[in-house]
Amino acid sequence: MTPDEILQGLYDNTLVGNGPAVLDLTDQGLSAGMQPGTLLFDALIPALEEVGARFERGDFFVPEMLIAGKAMAGSMEVLRPLLADTGVETVGKFVMGTVKGDVHDIGKNLVNIMLEGAGFEVIDLGVQVAPETFLAAIEKHQPDIVGFSAFLTTTMPMFKANMNALEKSGMRGDVLVMVGGAPVTQEYADVVGADGYAADASAAVKKAKALMRAKRAPVPA
Questions:
Q1: N or C: which terminus of the chain carries fewer CB neighbours within 10 A?
Q2: What is the pLDDT of residue 6?
Q3: How far is residue 50 from each of residues 118, 202, 219, 221, measured CA to CA in Å?
Q4: In CATH, which superfamily holds the domain spanning 90-221?
Q5: What whole-number distance in Å separates Cα of residue 116 and Cα of residue 68?
């Protein structure tokens, strides 16, 4: 296969969530001497962006997003260490976790995959993440953004507990905060003082990118 055929195949198969084909084409591309960054930025990321666009139009639903994300995740397992070795610059660093008391992670995992596909380095802390665990991860990894996920209305108050812990630690000014999950709204995000809210994985990537652009924009003199 030519490089163009490999890229087109990667795009098409990521779009439909054909994980084995995506992995095989990734291996073929690397064996042919193609750069990991080319596979990522010229095929995988555009495919995931198209998945997000179709979701927003109502042509795709959560299952389609999940299988496309999983197909890309398989390729990322291969590409991630190679990208690190070649020094491909990430869009930003993102620490993510489901808050204490909540064990739901499907939405969080989908957001993680979409963020990685968009060029973010993601540190996933898993579920049932206590405020002190978030603080330790922020101190260790120095992320640009921390994400709090909650699926239950009963665990949403942990957003405020996490924000209070950030304030108390003195690290609130060092990191942007995004929140999300099934019961979460923009209004609730505003009440707890988050910098960003997203209703779904596609919107989360757009918001995270927007926050990074704003963060890196030059400050007017």
A1: C
A2: 96
A3: 12, 10, 33, 38
A4: Cobalamin-binding domain (3.40.50.280)
A5: 13
User: Strand ranges (DSSP E) for the chain?
Assistant: 92-98, 120-124, 145-149, 176-180, 196-198
Task: Judge residue 168's burial from the number of C-beta atoms within 10 Å of its C-beta, 0-12 exposed, 13-18 middle, 19 or more buried.
Answer: exposed
Contact 25, 78 (CB under 8 A): no
> Where exactly are the structural domains of the chain?
1-88, 90-221
Asked whether 14 and 44 are in contact (CB, 8 A), the reply is yes
DSSP for residue 172: G
For β-strands 120-124 and 176-180, DSSP reports them as unpaired
Structure confidence at residue 105 (pLDDT):
84
CATH top class, domain 1-88: mainly alpha
Taking only the tens place, the pLDDT of each residue in 28-76 is 999 999 998 899 889 988 898 888 888 878 998 878 888 888 898 889 8
This prediction has a pTM of 0.74
Q: Give Cβ neighbours of residue 186 (< 8 Å, ≥ 6 apart).
A: 197
| Token code pair at residue 204 | 């989360």
Q: How many CB atoms lie within 10 A of CB 34?
A: 17
